[in-house]
Structures are given as C-alpha cells and as structure tokens.
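Hi W., the shikimate-3-phosphate complex you wanted:
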Amino acid sequence: MPQEPKIDKTIVLVGIMGSGKSAIGARLALKLGLPFVDMDKYIEDREGITISEIFEKHGEPYFRGLEREVIDELVAGEPCVLATGGGAFINDEIRALIKKKARSVCIKADFDIILERVSRKNTRPLLEKGDKASILKDLMEKRCPIYEQADIIVDSSEGEHDIVVYRIIEELS
Ligand code: S3P
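Structure:
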C-alpha cells in the first residue's frame, strides 16, 4: 500500500453511471479514514424519496437544481470522499466548483462492463427511457471527454475495486 497521502480537500469521484463511484468511494474513504458521502443517497435522504421518484414527480431540471445546491454544501465542509451522480460533473458550474475546491477522480470503465452493471438495476431514470445500450452509448460519447477533465483518471474495468483504490491513493500521494 502506498504511503497514505495527507488529505486537505474533499476527493470527488466522477464518471458515468455504473463506473463504480460509490463502491470504490466507500472503500477509499475507509482506507483514508475519511467520511464517505454518496451524493444521490444524500439527495434521497434530504428529499425523502428516491432519485427515480424525484425525476418522476418533479422532472430532471429539478433534480439538477438539487445537485447544484448540495454540491456547494458538500465541498465547503470538512474533507470527505464524495461519490457524485453521473450528471453532476457534466454541469459547467458544478465542475468549476469541484475543480476549484476539491480533488477530482474520474472512474472509467469499458462500455460492455458498464452496460452489464447498469442492466442489473432499474433505478436510473435516464436509462429507463428506451434502449439502455443506445442511451448509454450516447451518454458515454458525450460525457466521457468531460469526465476526463478530472485531476486523476483511473480505470475500473478490470480487477478488484481494492486495486483501483490503491491506484487512487498512489496518485493522490
Ligand atoms: C445520473 C446518474 C445517477 C443519478 C441520476 C442521474 C446521470 O447516478 O444521479 O439517475 O445523469 O448520469 P449514478 O451515476 O450514481 O448512477
């Protein structure tokens, strides 16, 4: 294990749905002895309903507004590991805020692996609007170059999440 880096800023994980942000983030937080926050879960707890219900009842723009609101709060507090939802870093204002106040880590993975992971669940409203594979392909084409503006890029396609965590810690050191 690389020497543990001194963390003075929140570490924000970004990437497409199913890239492993939450699972990797929780393990990374444990290794670094930092609190872990999952932004989607945080929003669900705050609103008292699921992300799918927020999209259904209030629409996507309302959800994007919530993301914008909570990110301000979350990057202003004590350092933590924060797993964002896949759309957060795509927003110009949110991305600028993260770049300024936090260290960002892009979790990448290959299309086939992501598709296999996201196909196991129906909790992602953007993928429920039609054919999952073509929606995902489209989103990845548009968004991946933006995720890659993060400070650190790691690939979660192969190997255990712990190996990815190890690589992130190496990069942070
Ligand atoms: C979204 C990704 C989801 C969630 C919402 C919208 C997106 O989070 O925030 O369904 O726009 O990519 P995960 O990336 O954690 O699945």
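Helices lie at 21-32, 39-47, 51-58, 60-76, 92-101, 111-119, 132-147, 161-172.

W.
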